[in-house]
Amino acid sequence: MIFMKSILKLLTIILLPILGFSQAKEYKDFNKLYFCSNLNKPDNIPLESYNTLISKLTQIASNYGFGGTADCSSRFYITCSINIISKEITSTAPSNIIIKTSVLFSIGDNVENVVYSSFSKELNGIGQSEVKAYNNLISKINASEKGISNFIETAKIKIINYFDANCESIIKTANNLKAQGKYDEAIFELTKVPDISVACYENALNAVERIYQEKIDRECLVTLRRVNSIWSAFPNVDGARAASEIINQISPFSSCEPDLTLLLSEIKNKLTEDQSKDFELNIKKYNDAIELKREALRIDEEDRKRQSAIKRNEIKSEYALKKAELESEGGVINKIKKLKLVLWGENESSYLKEKGKTTPRN
After folding, report:
1. What pLDDT, in 10s, does the model give residues 320-354?
2. Structural domains in the chain?
3. In the sheet that 114-127 helps form, which strands lie side by side, from edge to edge?
4. How far is CA 339 from the centre of its chain?
């Protein structure tokens, strides 16, 4: 278990200088189940209390490991509505406002437009102003109480059941998009499958790898032809500079990468020492990606050898324990597949920002 965690940690460290911290953090969270805090601004709640309520919803989701933010692109959301039962002002000095309400919590799906779980309870708030009364009411929402715990667990189970039942249809839709050459749309559909739906998640990740490979292989051939054409027409420093501007678009996992490596060697040999250094600097991102690929493959191979050694040495009890522990966390997923998904996310960031937006609903 510790070994597996160290691999994932190492891959993250390797990714940071190439993708940048914010992008690495954003794309490593693909397929995570997030309940974004989602709340339409109600007319009957002061703005200050509205912000406090948003924070409370985020706290509830975070307490159970499903925390997103108030502004994220997850399809799943947690929200609540506060319905006023009564409001009165006391005759004491100073006077207080007493608010009696019914609070309804919901977890839903922006894509399917369904509510997976709900939980309601009556809460009272008191304060010398409306804001203080509402804040007092919101402070009484206990993120750890059994009702909320059951509410979260019910949503989790229903989401798992939904994806288990619809997994074949989701993958079929992605394959149809791939057949039309809509690779990014296909991959995006598959990244909607949350990792808590273990079987569907693994099947979706396998499909992502196949589609991603076809996408980068096709793109690589097109890009390689462009680079060859430029270099054939201008076999000099200008041609090398022009070629370097498009080389970084090629994935290190594409099947034509070896051909590109030969071409890069040919270009470099034609340049002077100073020109060669400039050329290497211009394609540094691509060279870093190649090193990343080699390191990831090395780590993955070491992991495979270790697992084989455990089986050969018949350390059955240890192997069974570690396997059960890993499976309880979602199964052993090939780290290379995850890495390819990260690289796809880096190259398609603008597409994701557009497609990842969902329309909040209460």
Report:
1. 555 555 544 444 445 666 666 666 666 665 555 55
2. 31-162 (3.30.160), 181-355 (no CATH)
3. 36-37, 76-89, 97-109, 114-127
4. 12
